[in-house]
């Protein structure tokens, strides 16, 4: 049975509650319109996995401090900025079942809101001289942007192999979870070596997290994500890459032609899903995901046993057992 987020966050429940209030204060603005939008963003928060990774990692490495709250806020501010900008780029009207900022306040305001969030995050670190934390998070945002652009470039040519796929998800997804764990460690004064080890741990978890997301595209669970959305968007995910590698030249050409020219047709998308399932693509992706989880656990076990470490291990399991 999958553990609930509430059960996992027990060792940092008080900190997570305090963080909600502090985060709202960090976002405050004297401009009424901006403050109204900030309120809207705070109200539609998700499962808050990122702050949990920060606080639990900090607890594994030392004593949670004010710097930990600022580090978690910096990640949330910068990540939220990228999401607000993403919705403008994708012309998306919804985010987590709510209207997106651009849907309610138009693109121009949404872009400026993203800029504001970005600057608030940067100033939060600069004002407190927390340049190590700022460097970790800024590096993650750079990698995130590069990963997105690499995926767009490859989607046009549909020539992604496993190596390129791992590079994309390492930058696009794993870099952010890695930065959460590294920030947690850095915020409690951990050595450079410990920060590096926590970063490596977070990266492995992030890789597994993204592969789990890829599996959702094939209807492995009832989730909010529509079936076959990655195929429609011409994203080459691990189950599909594996299936194409196993296919004959003729079959491979047929499937790539569907993705390139007919991915808007539900019947054709169903054909691709069936092809991937029949080729063992899902089983292969699950094996790779499990391997990353085992590698993450091995890194985590290098740290002393504690309630924080136990919860972090449960959080790793949650990322691959979740249903959305």
Automatic annotation (TrEMBL):
SUPFAM superfamilies: Terpenoid synthases. Its cofactor is Mg(2+). GO terms for biological process: isoprenoid biosynthetic process. One of its GO terms (molecular function) is prenyltransferase activity. Keywords: Magnesium, Metal-binding, Transferase. Belongs to the FPP/GGPP synthase family. This is Polyprenyl synthetase family protein. The lineage of its organism: Bacteria, Pseudomonadati, Bacteroidota, Cytophagia, Cytophagales.
């Amino acid at each position: 049975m999958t553990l609930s987020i509430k059960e996992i966050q027990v060792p940092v429940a008080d900190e997570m509650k305090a963080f909600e209030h502090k985060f709202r204060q960090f976002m405050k603005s004297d401009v009424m319109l901006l403050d109204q939008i900030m309120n809207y963003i705070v109200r539609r928060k998700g499962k808050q996995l990122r702050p949990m990774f920060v606080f639990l990692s900090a607890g594994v490495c030392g004593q949670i401090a004010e710097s930990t709250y600022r580090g978690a806020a910096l990640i949330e501010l910068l990540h939220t900025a990228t999401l607000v900008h993403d919705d403008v780029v994708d012309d998306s009207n919804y985010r987590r079942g709510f209207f997106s900022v651009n849907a309610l306040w138009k693109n121009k305001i949404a872009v400026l809101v993203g800029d504001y969030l970005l600057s608030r995050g940067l100033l939060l670190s600069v004002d407190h001289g927390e340049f190590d934390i700022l460097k970790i998070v800024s590096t993650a945002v750079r990698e995130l942007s590069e990963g997105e652009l690499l995926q767009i470039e490859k989607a046009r040519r549909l020539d992604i192999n496993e190596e390129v796929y791992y590079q994309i998800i390492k930058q696009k997804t794993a870099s952010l979870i890695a930065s959460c764990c590294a920030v947690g460690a850095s915020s409690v004064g951990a050595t450079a070596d410990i920060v590096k080890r926590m970063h490596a741990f977070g990266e492995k978890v992030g890789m597994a997290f993204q592969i789990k997301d890829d599996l959702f595209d094939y209807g492995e669970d009832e989730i909010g994500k529509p079936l076959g959305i990655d195929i429609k968007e011409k994203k080459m995910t691990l189950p599909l890459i594996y299936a194409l590698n196993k296919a004959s030249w003729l079959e491979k050409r047929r499937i790539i032609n569907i993705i390139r020219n007919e991915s808007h047709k539900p019947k054709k998308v169903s054909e691709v899903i069936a092809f991937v399932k029949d080729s063992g693509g899902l089983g292969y992706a699950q094996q790779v995901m499990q391997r990353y989880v085992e590698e993450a656990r091995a890194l985590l076990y290098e740290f002393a046993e504690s309630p924080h470490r136990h919860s972090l291990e449960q959080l790793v399991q949650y990322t691959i057992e979740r249903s959305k």
